[in-house]
Amino acid sequence: MINYKQSLTTLLFAIFTLPVLGQQKDMIVVNASKPVAAISSTMWGVFFEDINMGADGGIYAELVKNRSFEFSKPLMGWSMKGKRTKEGDVLVLNRQDKNTANPRFLRVNLHQGSSRELGIANEGFKGMGIKKELTYEFSLMFRHQTKGTTLFIELVNEANKPIGSGQLKLEGEANKWHKQSVTFKATEAAAKAKLNIWFEGTGFLDLDMISLFPSDTWKGRRGGMRKDMIQMLADMKPGFIRFPGGCIVEGMDLANRYQWKKTLGPLEERQLIMNRWNVEFAHRPAPDYFQTFGLGFFEYFQLAEDLGAEPVPILNCGMACQFNTAELVPLEQLDPYVQDALDLIEFANGDASTQWGKIRIAMGHPAPFKLKYLGVGNENWGPQYIERAKVFQQAIKAKYPDIKLIYSSGTNPESDRFHYLDTALRKMKADVIDEHYYMPPEWFLKNAGRYDNYDRNGAKIFAGEYAAHVDGKIVGSNRNLWEAAIAEAAFMTGLERNAGVVDMASYAPLFAHAEGWQWAPDLIWLDNLNIYGTPSYYVQKMFSTHKGTQVIQALINQKVVAGADQLYVSAVRDEAKKELIVKMVNTAANSRTKQISFQGVKLAKVASLLTMSANLTDKNSLDDPSLITPKAASLKLKGQTATVQLPANSFLLLKVPYQ
């Protein structure tokens, strides 16, 4: 028997849905009711390496260069001043093995007279950035032969005009080391100030650890970090911070490798080393580039905690940089390197009953840092790396089975080295594999689907270092073009779509000083007083501050949108905020209109929209820091549909509240 009522209903449904079905061929269809994968809390993070003056002269706010006279040239950064300087008045002495961490100090032979007859000056890191009306703290360690010595501290600007001064009368028992400090305000600002120290008194005066810090450090910590630089990171809300590198982990040779234990304790006991970027590039010489380790592992962990980010330390695995010396520790001598890894976990997580936990507590952090991740080597490759990685894996997992170990997959994501490492590490049942790619923008556009077919049940992926590199004839901050940023945004939609296998991602390098860079492009550029985010920074920030909790489907014609018709799309759901977030990249040279149909939830009537668009050759700069930044607008929805205008060469983020 024919059910005429049912047939009529079916016919009417078909008639009235024909236009909708037709539209859906051109629509982005977002299905919020079918989560594809959970998004890791560590999905988007930051990678810090002391390159481009990232630490000394960068986030570490010390203004005095070579404060302990330990550079290869002991007086680098210093000069003598005064009318009565004679041969022998100023000497560098070396205690050698009586103080191996800080052997050198300065001895000044004082003659009775005015404070302007003998002095020393420090040039700072490309000068000293001084702010008007800000308080500065001068400190030093000293040993005097005769009491009554007075130091006159003076900041002078580029015209040698005094812009701040203080006076310090040295006290304490003669012939013993003491530490004193004095604070004073700057009366004027200067981008390239210098520090003068004048002496008044008689006899020999020994000086060490001469220091000058601004008072407006991050969280107001004495001897802390440059506030505006850390604020740029905090604004990103990173899920992790990877440190301390990078190539400095490996070192040019094993003697030059990063050794975390030497970065703990009082500053005067931290052993300085040459930064490997000091001599890496002949076209960008940096003879005054050293690591003082005022920024050490304790400070890195503390910074991660400040940012609400997981700490991700990377340790040397017994291999120096393979592009330099390729030195190896023989396997039978690898135990100290493995023990360093075990001790680091104890330092981060141990209680007062443990040797290294006790040291952390003594440094002022009773609670554990809750370390969960540890990297074994950086950009190492070959069977020699796999041999050493297995030794680390066996020892660490035996004692700390819950620590997730991160392993290197080399330097080129398409090389034979990469494929060898990827296969070997998966056989080892690696927790996380770290992939790096510094490639042209075209590579990022073509590889937005790179992880679509990766094994969801195997190792997770850490996109640990990536940046789109435009034409190599373009140098410095000019490399941070919109062309690079939009290609990275397109690639990142692929990372986000594949959150089922990609757990972590971070752009690299992070910071660059406009006068002290070795490598470009970089995420954030600065000088002594100013800072700005590149277009790539704002792309990273848009992803990291709109991370969501679950990936959801965003399809056109039942297919993921990864470059077809020069369009890239990903979508997430944020269950905590009750929002759907769609990220869209249009790499076409023309504007286009797209409709987005939402399924599975009931939407609010108004959505918010963030848009970035520019000419491919546009960039931000110190003179125009906000040329390319997200522009906010509201968008009214029509039922379950949003109609969005995508400008040429644009990145859009649509945020839709749902019930």
Task: Describe what you observe in this structure.
The protein has 2 domains: 46-61 and 225-550, Alpha-Beta Barrel (TIM Barrel); 78-214, Sandwich (Jelly Rolls). It is built from 11 helices and 34 strands. The strands form 6 sheets. Strands 1, 26, 27, 28, 29, 30, 31, 32, 33 and 34 form a 10-stranded mixed beta sheet that branches. Strands 2-14-17-18-19-20-21-22 form an 8-stranded parallel beta sheet. A hairpin with a 2-residue loop joins strand 26 and strand 27. Helix 5 packs across helix 6 and helix 10 runs parallel beside helix 11. Residues 464-650 form the Alpha-L-arabinofuranosidase C-terminal domain.
CATH class of the largest domain: Alpha Beta
Could you say what the CATH topology of the largest domain is called? TIM Barrel
The proportion of residues in beta strands is 25-35%
Could you tell me how far the N terminus lies from the C terminus, measured between alpha carbons in angstroms? Answer: 43 Å
- The total count of strands amounts to 34
Per CATH, the superfamily of the largest domain is Glycosidases
Show unreliable segments.
Answer: 4-23
The overall pLDDT average reads 94
CATH architecture of the largest domain: Alpha-Beta Barrel
Category by helix and strand content: alpha+beta
Shape: globular
Largest sheet features: 10 strands, mixed
Round the Cα radius of gyration to an integer and report it.
29 Å
The percent of residues in helical segments reads 10-25%
Number of domains: 2
Number of helices: 11
